[in-house]
Amino acid sequence: MWQEISAQIREVTQTDFEIKHHRSVGGGSINQAYAVSSGDHAYFVKLNAASGLLMFEAEARGLVQMAKTRTIKVPQPICWGITESTAYLVLEWLDFGYGNHAAWEMMGHNLAAMHRVTSDRGFGWDIENIIGSTPQPNPWTEDWFTFFRDHRLGHQFRLARVRGGHFPQENELMDALPKLLAGHDPQPSLLHGDLWSGNAAVTQLQEPVILDPATYFGDRETDLAMTELFGSFPKEFYRAYNAAWPLSNGYTLRKTLYNLYHVLNHFNQFGSGYEGQANRMITQLVRDC
Ligand code: ADP
Q1: Interface confidence (ipTM) of the complex
Q2: How does 99-111 read in b/e, with b if 16+ C-beta sit within 10 Å?
C-alpha cells in the first residue's frame, strides 16, 4: 500500500519521493492518520475503507476551493485514491504549534475574507460532502431559509428519526423557523462548514490554518457559531473577525439554531448522549423566538 501511495505522490509532485517511515498520528475521529516521510520530506495521509473515497475527494475539492481564494491557509491536497481496498488522501504536512495572539487575530481576519467570497448560484455546492461521517446534501438553492430548513436541519431530523431519536418539540421548532430566520437575508459565503476547535490550528511559523472542511456556500454565521460549540477559539479571533466584518443583530439566537444542526449530527453519529442536549436547544429556541 505505501509503495503505491509513494508512486502516486511521485507522479503528482514530479519528485523521487519514497515513503521510508510512516507513523500513526492521533487526533482524528473518523480516519486513521499517518505521517509519512522520505527522511527529508513529509506528508499527512488519511486512510479509510474504500467507501471513504468520495469523502476524501469531497474534502480535497473543498480544500482546493478554499485555497483558490488566497484568503486563508489550508493543507494542500496532493492526491487521493484506492489501494488494496483502502481509500487514501495525501495532504501537505504542516507542523502545528502553539498559536500566539497575532496568529489568532489573523485567523479571524482571514476567515472573514474567505466569507466575503460568494456564489452567484446561491446556497449549496457542486457536490454532496460529508460532515463527520454523515452525508451532507448541498443542492443549489436560491434562498437561505429553504436551504437551511430542508438540507440542514430537516436532513438531520430525518436521519435522527431513523435512528429512533425522540425530539418532542421538533414540529414546533420547524413551525417557528420562519420567525427565527425572519429578516435574515445573508449572502452565500464560502464556508469551512465544520469549524470546531479541532479543525483550526496555527503552524510553528504562526500561520493560521483551517482543515478537514465540509465546504459549501451558506450563512457565514454558521461557521462562527460552530467555533463556540465544542470549546471556543481565543478572544482575539472574534475581535478580529468582528472588526473585519461585524456580525448582525440576532446572531446569538441563530447561533443556537445553527449549532443544533451539529448536535443532531452528533446524535446521528454517536447516539443518545446528544439527544438531551438537542432537546434543550430546541426548547430554548421555541421559547425565545
Ligand atoms: P479526521 O478527518 O480523521 O477528523 P483530521 O483532518 O481532523 O482527521 O486530522 C486529525 C489530526 O491530525 C488533526 O487534529 C491535526 O492535529 C493533525 N493533522 C491534520 N492535518 C494535518 C496536516 N496536513 N499535517 C500535519 N498534521 C495534520
Answers
A1: 0.95
A2: beeebbbbbbbbb
